[in-house]
Design a protein that fits this description.
Strand order of the largest sheet: 2-1-3-4
Structural class: alpha/beta
Largest sheet: 4 strands, parallel
Number of helices: 13
Order of helices and strands: EHHHHEHEHHEHHHHHH
CATH architecture: 3-Layer(aba) Sandwich
């Protein structure tokens, strides 16, 4: 049915439904790891994200640069070469071999993974692990509003992160088993979306598990934002590009367009994105500076409290 060693990467920006999507893979006998990040106020039903991989990815991104908060731009060739010649390779290989069960796929849901796909592709090649990719899609307007409400990030930055995440996922998933799943479609008809995934990934579905997932785990009330484009206006390039991408990618997610028709639109999107990468570097540097100032403030505050 599937490769003896198989990894499924669940990619997508935060607030795009990656957690509920990942949980659904259990209906196909997929392992989700064994060291989960706990639920919190932002995700009450759980993240279904293995903390060991989360921490490794975070460390790798942090090691690539000392003056930027890497949230938008994917790895450059020099950064990838650095990681592939570092001790992170051994850690990544050991972690995969330890976590992937025999004759059972392992699913990894890590928000930063879209920036690190080239690294994990190389690790999978070295180990002979089949790499499969699920791309979580959600209306970028809904994502931006949800992120702003939950984390106070400005919407323009969220649009750029959404764009970068999707472009990277599309670029590096080519040649692998892959599927796009729309969040709103998943919430409306989870059984159908699980069926689409099972067909592409060549996996059986446990009907009892599917019933438990669709009838008891899925909770439409947790979808707090469902924004219609017609009710939202923004003239920024990031908004216009994100909407163009969403409209085309939604056709693939709804099985209305084949993958090969995406080649020309993708090239146009990638050119637009590449044309302003210098500005995005500045945005990442600015965010890094603010984060450092916050850390220094909290450090000084903690010291003062200890003195008192």
């Amino acid at each position: 049915m599937h490769d003896p060693k198989s990894l499924i990467l669940v990619l997508g920006m935060k607030r795009s439904g990656t957690s509920v999507l990942t949980k659904g893979l259990e209906t196909m006998g997929v392992s989700l790891g064994n060291h989960f990040m706990p639920p919190n106020e932002f995700n009450k039903t759980g993240y279904w994200e293995d903390r060991d991989f989360h921490e490794l990815n975070f460390e790798m991104l942090k090691s690539c640069t000392s003056n930027r908060a890497r949230r938008i731009l994917p790895l450059g060739e020099a950064e990838l070469d650095f990681l592939l010649s570092s001790p992170y390779v051994i850690r990544a290989r050991e972690l995969l071999l330890k976590k992937i069960p025999n004759h059972q796929p392992l699913a990894l849901k890590v928000p930063t993974a879209s920036l690190l796909i080239p690294f994990w592709k190389k690790i999978c090649e070295q180990l002979g692990v089949a790499l499969n990719i699920i791309i979580a899609l959600r209306n970028p307007i809904s994502v931006a509003i949800s992120v702003e409400r939950s984390f106070q990030d400005i919407q323009e930055k969220s649009f750029w992160i959404w764009i970068a995440s999707l472009l990277s996922s599309l670029k590096y998933s080519e040649g692998h088993r892959r599927i796009i799943v729309d969040y709103d479609a998943l919430m409306k008809n989870p059984a159908h979306q699980m069926g689409r995934i099972a067909q592409v990934m060549d996996l059986p579905i446990d009907r009892k598990g599917l019933h438990e997932y669709t009838d008891h785990f899925i909770d439409p009330s947790l979808r707090h934002v469902c924004q219609e484009q017609e009710l939202y206006s923004n003239e920024e390039l990031c908004f216009q590009l994100a909407i163009q991408m969403y409209k085309e990618l939604l056709k693939i997610a709804m099985d209305q367009m084949p993958w090969d028709e995406l080649k020309q639109p993708f090239e146009r999107w990638f050119q637009k994105f590449s044309s302003i990468q210098g500005l995005l570097v500045i945005l990442e540097m600015h965010e890094f500076t603010i984060a450092k100032l916050v850390d220094l403030y909290l450090e000084q505050k903690n010291k003062q409290e200890l003195i008192v």
